[in-house]
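Z., the sequence and structure:
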Amino acid sequence: MANLEQLKKDLLADGIIDAEEVKTIKEVIYEDGKIDKDEADFLFELNDAVSGKENAPEWKSLFIDAITSFMLEDEVSPNEIDDEEANYLYNQIKGDGQVDETERALLENLKAKSKNFPEILASLL
């Protein structure tokens, strides 16, 4: 986690995420082949910090793909969003008091790909 904190500090120094930084983020979070909770938290923290800024388009794609993977490729409820995941996602998205464009796109992607889409998440759309 310490590495993610330092990386976050470095990435946010200029207030945006550019294409090279997206490559770095992708290498770090997919190093072990899957997204864990610390990495998902890291991505949400980054997204909250750069929301509404001129980020590289690759950032939005990486964020959506990684969080979708975190939500739907787990062993407990594959291809579904269970109650714990729904509450986690709701709290992450509502944490900064807004649903930004990237988070809205994430929700739409999850709605399309998941076997279910809990009402608590539908309320954010």
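The chain has a mean pLDDT of 95. The CA atoms of residues 40 and 67 lie 6 Å apart.

Let me know what you think.
H.
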